[in-house]
Amino acid sequence: MPPAVITIAELAAHAGETVTLRGWVYNWRKKGKLRFIILRDGFGYLQCVVFEPEVDPAVWEAAVALTQESSVVVTGTLVADERAPGGYELKVTGIETIQVAPEYPIGKKDHGPDFLLNHRHLWLRSRRQHAIMRVRSELSQAIRDFFYSRSYTLIDSPILTPAAAEGTSSLFETDYFGEAKAYLSQSGQLYLEPAAAALGKVYCFGPTFRAEKSKTRRHLTEFWMVEPEVAWLRFDGLLDLCEEFLAEIVARVIDRCRVDLERLERDTTKLEPATRRPYPRIDYGDAIVKLQSLGQQIQFGGDFGGDDETVLAEQYDRPVMVTRYPAQVKAFYMQLDPADPIRALAVDVLAPEGYGEIIGGSERSDSLEHLERQIAAHGLPREAYEWYLDVRKYGSFPHSGFGMGIERCVAWLCGVPHLRETSPFPRLINRLYP
Amino acid sequence: MPPAVITIAELAAHAGETVTLRGWVYNWRKKGKLRFIILRDGFGYLQCVVFEPEVDPAVWEAAVALTQESSVVVTGTLVADERAPGGYELKVTGIETIQVAPEYPIGKKDHGPDFLLNHRHLWLRSRRQHAIMRVRSELSQAIRDFFYSRSYTLIDSPILTPAAAEGTSSLFETDYFGEAKAYLSQSGQLYLEPAAAALGKVYCFGPTFRAEKSKTRRHLTEFWMVEPEVAWLRFDGLLDLCEEFLAEIVARVIDRCRVDLERLERDTTKLEPATRRPYPRIDYGDAIVKLQSLGQQIQFGGDFGGDDETVLAEQYDRPVMVTRYPAQVKAFYMQLDPADPIRALAVDVLAPEGYGEIIGGSERSDSLEHLERQIAAHGLPREAYEWYLDVRKYGSFPHSGFGMGIERCVAWLCGVPHLRETSPFPRLINRLYP
């Protein structure tokens, strides 16, 4: 019987056995009659040791010929060894070389971000990018499980839309069969509101697009956003939902991505407070006073800059929820605060450590008249919103929701400063390749 | 203490109690001093009975004023009643009217598809559309759980791409900051292949776009596609994966969407064989002979038409896997069959009952030279595929994958003939609204 073919995720179940692994040479070094090959297979890394006196000459020859990122099938005895990285080592008995790779473009030296992004398809093979992608994947599943386990219905909102939620200046536009212009969606929210009337609790989770000409480390032109929308949920319930959501998904990533977070050298003690509720909640007005006392220039009525967000968030060990912003700095569809109608029932959740806003949400206006006035005041074409207004015409109901761009959340969880590393193939203002 | 606020999904736990429900009037009828109100809340339907002699005059007045799709908060005693649809009935004691709706546009009479699609935001409230959306949501989660539980890493492939996987004629195009043209992705596959080299087993699951001028019931311009890509997986393993995948997700939907499938009057005995492996596998050549014997005009070398697919699939009680198509009718990146190099190691999975192709997959070519020739032969710009070719340059490896558009799968599971009902807000050649 040939040896079991396993992955590096399955080592523990096969200690002492002869096994076969398939993967790529991540790294190698020589020491006399020894070759140490670090094999990576997408699931982990394993040190494979080839000792010339103990192997067939053809195996030794194959080992010596291997270069970085050559593809191989390796057979050997799996030995538990405390000194080995990961706790196991493979005593190689056989090597089947699939392909010897030519000199690999990504070496040990520091490459600039442009070089690495040009080679994103290869850069993903590095330990750090691998770990970030695993965190992103776990986070995405955690988000879906959160909503699935609470009986939300997934509603995939359309990407091709006839009108814009928040103006057309930052929209990608495409011709739609010579008949119309279509715009790439910036948010599924307007579509989720009628869906919430049909299905009670709904969410969407898909790519969204912003043709903003911003070159900051906190913007991508294409990113994935999750947006729940809940019928009968009022503002206070929305704040609870944001908190419950973040606490659960952060706890899950810390729990299931330990190896990846270690590889990223992420100090998870900085993340752990975010798994504990409650989060601090601060009224926008109080936040302004606090920011002014901390030396910020912001005035009541203004929206926060990135710097304001950082300074405010640094006051807390976990995400902080800033509530009841002035209506004028927020989107047209928000419910006004009955206690202070210049304010909207809006919340922004700011991540700690300078990672900025990760969630924005609000109670939505349930008043047809208010929305009609808002649409006129914003100069939006009424006929494009007729269907949206129908939500307030046929059985209007209180409802709330939020949106979270997952790349910012991944950046925070992984402790990476630039969003370009949080997306498998990031799209930036000057970057559409590969 | 006020009564518990519950949803119609939670009735069983509250029989005999006084409860409050929030929702919309799905339907109502009168009978003397009785008003029967069918309440829907997004989770189900509940008959609420108002009996004039037993309620406050204001409650009776409120009940009488309610119209279809008015929003209400209803309180009453929940009574188990075998005769009631769903097994429970609410003896109403209180009604809080949130909004009385004006005449609802969607009535009992038959509306044409255009009318219904123009009112898609309201049409979603109907029993049938509600059920389809629940099936779609369950299917999507089943797909994610399938891959998550098997240690696949989710890789969100980009939507904005610089080049096309399969030619540019059916692509939506957008200007990218005045610097370049970007095309909306038709498939994430080319991006998944390098990701498989980095992470072993990967999948993407997101919207894809086809600007095809086809007006058939089996085409949408925007649809969601799931695509796994697996390193070291050869063609036979791919066939097993397709089968394992379909069998598991179909079984899960049958199991967890019983109520929805009943509401759709779907005969699930027609679906059940698909939960049992193996599926029939038929060589393309044998399929041609069989089709000819069944009176079809198709010749060896041609691709199947929708009619051929239907006729062939009708021979089986479960999905049938057609293998090893002529390379010339398939995409450029496929591995040729070593036993017969005019064939590609490609598989199409055809659903029963005339629902046609739901999965297309293949082993991918691992030969740099073959792909270079293919790219030249198809007149594709080599420089746009440089990064893709790198997958064969730096540690080439056997790998396979498939794609499934979920709308076709939803149509099959639900037994709906037209894809327009399988998407929350479908996009067709003549349909971009709402």
What characteristics describe this protein?
homodimer, 434 residues, alpha+beta, 8-stranded mixed β-sheet, 5-stranded mixed β-barrel, elongated
3D structure, described in words:
With 434 residues, chain A is of the alpha+beta class. Chain A has 12 helices and 17 strands. In chain A, the strands form 3 sheets. An 8-stranded mixed beta sheet of chain A has the order 7-11-12-17-16-15-14-13, sandwiched between helices. Chain A has a 5-stranded mixed barrel with strand order 2-3-4-6-5. In chain A, strands 8-10-9 form a 3-stranded antiparallel beta sheet, with no helix packed on it. In chain A, β15 and β16 form a beta hairpin. In chain A, α4 crosses α6 (235-256) and α4 packs across α12 (406-414). Chain A is elongated.
Topology, element by element:
The structure is a homodimer of 434-residue chains.
Chain A: E1 4-5, E2 18-31, E3 34-40, E4 45-51, H1 57-65, E5 71-80, E6 88-99, H2 113-118, H3 120-123, H4 127-149, E7 153-154, E8 160-161, E9 173-176, E10 180-184, H5 189-199, E11 201-209, E12 222-231, H6 235-256, H7 258-263, E13 281-283, H8 284-293, H9 306-313, E14 320-323, E15 346-351, E16 356-364, H10 368-377, H11 386-393, E17 399-405, H12 406-414
Count the helices of chain A. How many? 12
Largest interface: A-B, 90 and 90 residues
Q: Tell me roughly what share of residues is in helical segments of chain A.
A: 25-40%
How would you spell out the order of helices and strands of chain A? EEEEHEEHHHEEEEHEEHHEHHEEEHHEH
- What gross morphology of chain A would you assign? elongated
Query: Approximately what portion of the residues of chain A adopt beta-strand conformation?
Result: 25-35%
End-to-end Cα distance of chain A: 43 Å
- Give, in spatial order, the strands making up the sheet with the most strands of chain A: 7-11-12-17-16-15-14-13
